[in-house]
Amino acid sequence: MNSVDLDRLRIMIVDDQTLVRSLISQALQSMGVKQDRIFQAADGTTAMRLLDIRGVDIVLCDVQMQPMNGMDLLKELRCGHTANVSNLPFVFLSGHADRSNVVLASQLHADGFVVKPPKPAEVEKSIQVAMSRNRPEIDPFSYYHVATGTEYDKKVFGRLFETRAPVSQDEPEEKCLSLDMVKPGSVLARDLRSKAGHLLLPRGASISATQLNVLRDFSERYGVAQIYVANSDEAAANPSVARH
């Protein structure tokens, strides 16, 4: 395993305990990570906002947080709902890496666990391993059905794939756009399916910039050339419309 140059890394620490964040930040700086390349978030929601404006190389994240816990944050990331790449290295900080969490983390392609309180040597080892391993294939549409079991997940993701009523005449008019014409945040007027017929995103979901880029970059895999979106300027422009 080749050693990773730590002074070049941009690292995000997500934990609801200020002391834990401070200890890890100090440990990272002692390893050579530059202070201005260490970002901190006290919960998953704040981390999501930061991941939309900051490019990072790896996330170190607590599991137990409210209302969005670490598993929910990783799922959001893997589904392409941030501006960072969906296969970003991601290591959990946990005082209890029980079997259910380990299995779920594996399904979401996490890069391991560091037991809290974190020891600097373990933190450094986990970073080196995560940054050196082969990354999972970029496929943000394959993680929607991985249920984290939280209320957040049921509210945000669970309703997307419930049995939906047929399109009614009262629904907004739709327009068919080429992939390059679709704006991030556009709401789907029809189910989005791959060329093989697999459901990628259901009607009513909005599509993110990362997901659009993936559809363009991997056109042979998905075979999506055009998308039906709701003909509503308000839906496309209003950030309060659910991203998912």
UniProtKB/TrEMBL annotation:
Residues 10-131 form the Response regulatory domain. The keyword Phosphoprotein applies. The modification 4-aspartylphosphate is found at D62. The keyword Ribosomal protein does not apply. InterPro entries: CheY-like_superfamily, Sig_transdc_resp-reg_receiver, ST_Response_Regulator. Pfam families: Response_reg. CDD domains: REC (cd00156). Keywords: Phosphoprotein. SUPFAM superfamilies: CheY-like. PANTHER family: TWO-COMPONENT RESPONSE REGULATOR (PTHR43228), TWO-COMPONENT RESPONSE REGULATOR ARR22 (PTHR43228:SF1). This is Response regulator. It comes from Chromobacterium piscinae. The lineage of its organism: Bacteria, Pseudomonadati, Pseudomonadota, Betaproteobacteria, Neisseriales.
